[in-house]
Design goal:
The protein has about 250 residues and is of the alpha+beta class. The chain is built from eight helices and nine strands. Helix content is about 45%, strand content about 20%. The radius of gyration is 20 Å and the shape is globular. It starts with a strand and ends in a 13-residue tail after the last helix.
Length: about 250
């Protein structure tokens, strides 16, 4: 198995995502990460496997693609196709990670992202949204602009292959109540934008307490009522996980 790591310029080459999906490469995973979290991960863990300068160019963001195949020739051909897509999209370079130790280091750096964010952040509020893959760049640009408008630091990474994005509102040197007021404004705007782009207000992390109002806005009254009816059918006395989404 090879991991392919294209180095790309900020968010522009996210436009290549639909082409990667349609190219018949069947990637195991397609992850994205922004430069600031890569720098923080390297400083926190000492793991500097992800280079930050390629051919004299400062990297702004990265896409990490895991490829496999029936044999080396098939994997190599898929890697060549991916490199061509990346070059056309404006990637600085495509780095093939083949050695087992390097592959482990790449994924260790990726796995440390949330730990790093938590270690560097006094106040944290997170959202887990899904948008169409061809809208990832638009949504990320919007959420970063919204963070600036509300004086909230936005940090993000996620699964570019299915549009599942992990967005973190971060605040330091601010009172908790003041931070939550600002992050709530960011959340409202983000979930509205997600709906506008045809996405969903949650991906792999579920709804819970915080997203109840956003779920109804996202799926509509009919779908929400259907969920409640199914819950009622299986739990007529309301004793299973009471007081949560469908109550």
């Amino acid at each position: 198995m090879w991991e392919i790591l294209p180095f790309i310029v900020v968010l522009l080459p996210f436009a290549a995502m639909p082409r990667i999906k349609l190219a018949g490469l069947n990637p195991q995973s397609i992850e994205f990460m922004e430069r600031d979290i890569v720098d923080s991960s390297a400083e926190y863990t000492g793991n500097k496997i992800i280079p930050t300068v390629v051919d004299g160019n400062e990297c702004g963001a990265y896409i990490l693609v895991t490829l496999d195949g029936n044999d080396d020739d098939e994997i190599f051909q898929r890697a060549e196709t991916l490199a061509e897509i990346g070059e056309e999209a404006g990637a600085f370079d495509t780095l093939v990670i083949e050695h087992p130790a390097d592959k482990a280091a790449i994924w260790a750096a990726r796995s440390a992202f949330l730990t790093v964010i938590e270690a560097e952040t006094e106040h944290l509020d997170e959202m887990d949204v899904v948008v169409p893959v061809d809208k990832i760049a638009e949504f990320l640009g919007f959420i970063h602009d919204t963070g600036v408008e509300n004086d909230v630091l936005i940090r993000s990474f996620g699964h570019a292959g299915d549009g599942n994005l992990h967005i973190y509102c971060c605040g330091n040197n601010i009172e908790r109540e003041a931070f939550l007021e600002k992050s709530t404004r960011v959340m409202h705007a983000a979930y509205a934008k997600c709906n506008e782009l045809g996405g969903q207000v949650s991906g792999e992390h579920g709804i819970g307490h915080a997203k109840k109002e956003y779920l109804r806005e996202s799926v509509g009254d009919t779908a929400f009522s259907l969920m409640s009816s199914i819950k009622q059918a299986f739990d007529p006395k309301g004793i299973l996980n009471p007081g949560k989404v469908c109550n």
